[in-house]
Write a structure and sequence with these properties.
Elements lengths: L15 H20 L6 H8 L3 H7 L3 H22 L8 H21 L1 H9 L3 H23 L8 H15 L9 H14 L4
Length: about 200
């Protein structure tokens, strides 16, 4: 399930300015991921992009502005994905496990699409803490509604479940595709969340 924005053939091509702006964002993302936010300088970004510092400042007031735009878009897309994964009818048993597997697969596929953006949005400070806290709240909103439907027990509050979900996503997203297939990884997460680890 891809959430990348693609241009329609019927729409006009992006302006030269928009192409330049996106080029700067792409290289900013790569440099932030490579060096970390604090160590990245505007000079790193423009050198990587092959553009000049004056050109950078036409589009962004600072490296912070470019960083915030990247992280904001990452979070926006995560929120849309989360809202789309709301279970809207009562299910249980293996159907629930499969539904949770689909949810984990969707999140993990999105995070694998752009490793640099995931690095700065989910793994690295300063943005990672707010991203994970926000994601937990969005997932908790879903879970609370699903608890009202009887999908999940109300024995554990929705935010606690959501925080566990986010922790599993965080760790699963770090697993190399060579180490474990995505579907298998997602199913393992789903079974742990749904059925626990007891005998």
């Amino acid at each position: 399930m891809s959430h990348r924005v693609t241009l329609s053939h019927n729409r006009s091509q992006p302006s030269k300015g928009e192409v330049t702006r996106q080029r700067l964002l792409k290289h900013a993302c790569r440099e932030f991921a490579r060096l970390g936010f604090h160590s990245t300088k505007v000079s790193n970004i423009v050198k990587a992009s092959g553009l000049s510092q004056p050109t950078f400042y036409i589009y962004f007031d600072s490296k912070e502005a470019a960083y915030e735009e990247l992280v904001h878009e990452f979070r926006r897309r995560l929120r849309v994905i989360t809202e789309d994964l709301l279970i809207q009818k009562p299910i249980g048993g293996e159907a629930l496990v499969k539904s949770l597997q689909y949810s984990f697969t969707t999140f993990l596929s999105f995070l694998a699409e752009d490793p640099d953006l995931t690095e700065i949005g989910l793994f690295q400070p300063p943005g990672c803490t707010e991203t994970k806290a926000s994601l937990a709240v969005w997932i908790a909103d879903n879970i609370a509604q699903e608890q009202d439907l009887g999908v999940f027990s109300k024995d554990v509050d929705a935010l606690t479940i959501a925080r566990c979900f986010v922790g599993m996503i965080d760790q699963a997203a770090r697993v190399s595709p060579n180490e474990m297939a995505l579907g298998e990884l997602a199913m393992g997460c789903a079974r742990v969340l749904c059925k626990g680890i007891g005998q």
